[in-house]
């Protein structure tokens, strides 16, 4: 009996901090809630620590990737918006690292991963990368040089779509500087 009381008392703070996650999961489509529940928290984060989870690019990337892959377009949009809202509730302004790797052909994925980000951008900051003409130019050139014509078209379309999802309209070809 003593264990039960201690366990219940020690669980109260966790339940209080878990409420944003519970609220999130009740407002999103089932496919998005499943992604949120099934994505393992990274080392150092507990499953009910939304501040830690929202600050983890790994967790946000894996969760958003799952939502994009398993939900319809409407469900995905709802899930992504709610993910952003929950992170904002805990003081984290979330810019979703949108997954290119799942939708692009392997040759395009390799090009994007192998293109060095400009000094002012981190490798997981799609907004910064998409605003960098140099990065977009180098990535798209690599895709066009490396992939077959069908793969290149799919890779370029995914690059444009990825940038569009972070609010950056990419026009190709990018002017050479």
From TrEMBL:
Keyword Transcription applies = no
Give the source's domain of life in one word: Eukaryota
Q: Which GO terms describe its molecular function?
A: metal ion binding
Checking PROSITE patterns in the record gives: CFEM (PS52012)
Bilayer disposition of the protein = Lipid-anchor; GPI-anchor
Q: Which UniProt keywords apply?
A: Cell membrane, Disulfide bond, Glycoprotein, Heme, Iron, Lipoprotein, Membrane, Metal-binding, Secreted, Signal
Record field: transmembrane: none
Localization per record: Cell membrane; Secreted
- Pfam family for this entry, one: CFEM
Q: Which residues form the CFEM domain?
A: 1-111
* Signal peptide region: 1-18
Q: PANTHER family, from UniProt? A: CFEM DOMAIN PROTEIN (AFU_ORTHOLOGUE AFUA_6G14090) (PTHR37928), GPI ANCHORED CFEM DOMAIN PROTEIN (AFU_ORTHOLOGUE AFUA_6G10580) (PTHR37928:SF2)
Q: Which family does it belong to?
A: Belongs to the RBT5 family.
Name of protein: CFEM domain-containing protein
Q: Which organism is it from?
A: Tetrapyrgos nigripes
């Amino acid at each position: 009996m003593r264990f039960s009381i201690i366990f219940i008392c020690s669980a109260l703070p966790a339940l209080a901090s878990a409420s944003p996650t519970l609220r999130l999961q009740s407002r999103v489509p089932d496919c998005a809630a499943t992604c949120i529940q099934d994505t393992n928290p990274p080392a150092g984060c507990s499953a009910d620590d939304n501040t830690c989870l929202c600050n983890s690019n790994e967790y946000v990337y894996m969760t958003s990737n799952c939502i994009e892959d398993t939900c319809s377009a409407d469900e995905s949009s709802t899930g992504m918006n709610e993910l952003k809202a929950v992170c904002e509730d805990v003081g984290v302004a979330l810019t979703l690292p949108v997954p290119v790797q799942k939708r692009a052909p392997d040759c395009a994925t390799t090009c994007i991963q192998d293109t060095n980000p400009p000094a002012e951008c981190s490798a997981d900051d799609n907004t910064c990368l998409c605003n960098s003409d140099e990065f977009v130019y180098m990535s798209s050139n690599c895709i066009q040089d490396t992939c077959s014509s069908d793969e290149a078209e799919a890779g370029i379309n995914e690059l444009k779509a990825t940038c569009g999802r972070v609010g950056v309209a990419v026009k190709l070809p990018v002017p050479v500087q």
